[in-house]
Fold:
Amino acid sequence: MELDLRTPWSIGGVEIPTRLVLAPMAGVSVQAFRRQGRRYGAGLVCSEMVSCAGIEHRNEKTLGYLRVASDEHPLAIQIFGSDPSVMAEAARMVAAAGADIVDVNFGCPVKKVTKTGAGATLLDDPDRACRIVAAIADAVSLPVSVKMRRGLENGSRACLEVGPRLVEAGAASLTLHPRSAKQMYTGEADHSLTAELVERVDVPIIASGDITSRARAQAVLTTTGAAAVMVGRGAQGNPWALREIVDAEAPDPTREEIVAELVLFIRETVRELGERRATGFLKKFYGWYLGRGRFPRPFKQELVQLQTLDEVETRLFAAAPGARFVLERLQDELPQGDEVLLDLPISIYGGG
Ligand SMILES: Cc1cc2nc3c(=O)[nH]c(=O)nc-3n(C[C@H](O)[C@H](O)[C@H](O)COP(=O)(O)O)c2cc1C
Structure:
């Protein structure tokens, strides 16, 4: 029998309306991505990682500052760092910005992060990892969640030892991406570890890794006992995958819908990052939206060459004129105003 992904669940006291969580992805999970994820069925969305190094010395390479809108809730904001007291301070700022959950990154495999003792390296230093979680849980009244890899080395089972200790230290939920840090994104996520972790703790577990379809989501939920699945790469330029996973509704999007979602994404991202930053940032999204056989390949190449985002919009509307009406409806439905800016930089060195 199929599981109903619209069954609510909760982390700490925070109710989450569906069993689908949108993954934090540095360089991807901008506000437009998170809001879109909510519209297509994600019950919980997560920010990119914000750097608590920004609290001490403001020289982190950054994409900008995090913006939180009212329709993103429930929202987890992810922080990374290695010093318990600095992380606790970052958590206070995250709470003040209106996050519902503070998520801690113990999964990032990128050298720039691990060499500072943050991210996945903390799986090798469980005492420090626990001190970080305890300090955050003490500092804020929000639930604390942790996102981790299986361990540093291939075949590692560190997550099974560290996970229960993090729960004892105060974690209200764990997300497991069961690849090693060394693997980066190669090979496959081994969700037999997710099943073992579920057995060892009494908090909800979120399963992350290689979930791109309803069939896969159902299989992972059923075989692991996880409370929810997380979708990352499968949702890049493809919110329709989220709808398929949650609601089994899988009509192919029309050209008008694709163009309307992409133009909305462009406009919202310009608002968040500014025109100059957004122009480069958005290029990778053209292929994600227009690929999958949806538009001819040269069309994407043409867009990437254009100098301004105005030209990109014009070219997109020329390819699907009816998209203007779809876009108008989408924009009408978005709440305006009421945003909070978090004064911590978004790190460009994400991963997990
Ligand atoms: C481009 C990219 C950036 C990522 N950035 C983060 C991050 O900032 N924090 C984090 O916890 N995980 C990050 N991840 C890992 C994802 O959240 C997720 O665990 C992983 O991609 C596996 O899920 P998937 O197969 O659905 O993509 C990132 C992944 C990608 C592809």
